[in-house]
Amino acid sequence: MGRSYRRTRRNRDPATSREKSRPSRPGSPESAATFLAFAAAHNASATLRDDIAIAVSEACANVVMHAYASDPHPGSLTVEGYQSNGHLIVIVIDEGSGLVARSDSPGTGLGLSLMQRLTQRLEITDHSPAGTRVLMRFALTA
């Protein structure tokens, strides 16, 4: 299966949580650069790395904007990646409210369709016990 990549960011109130308190910056340059280096190490082209960066950033932005919208102490955001059978698989997981339609959504509503266009496969499922799991598959060869 090859090497894999996993990065979790947590943003919990230190007074009420056992987890480390650390700012949640899912789109931070250091996490993006690390993941794109992982993609490059698996021979992802520059164009594919751009597509991956946009799709993963959009998935992470959805977590920030939607998953914890009503939560005063947002939970974790996990990004995992691995290579399998000529594909780079990226999974974004949150522990938020799940995929729920919102009439007050601050976004433009284009994020999911953009992610669909940039990936070879996009799966959005419930993550037990709470939250959403977004799996994106990218072909490493055309």
Question: Helix- and strand-based class?
Answer: alpha+beta
CATH architecture annotation: 2-Layer Sandwich
Average residue-wise pLDDT: 75
CA gyration radius, whole angstroms: 15 Å
Q: What percentage of residues falls in helices of 4 or more residues? A: 25-40%
Going by CATH, the homologous superfamily would be Histidine kinase-like ATPase, C-terminal domain
- So what's the overall shape? globular
Q: Largest sheet, order of strands side by side?
A: 1-2-3-5-4
What percent of residues are in strands?
25-35%
Sketch the major β-sheet.
5 strands, antiparallel
Stated plainly, the CATH topology is called Heat Shock Protein 90
Strand element count: 5
Q: Which stretches are low in confidence, meaning pLDDT under 50 for 5 or more residues running?
A: 9-27
- Count structural domains: 1
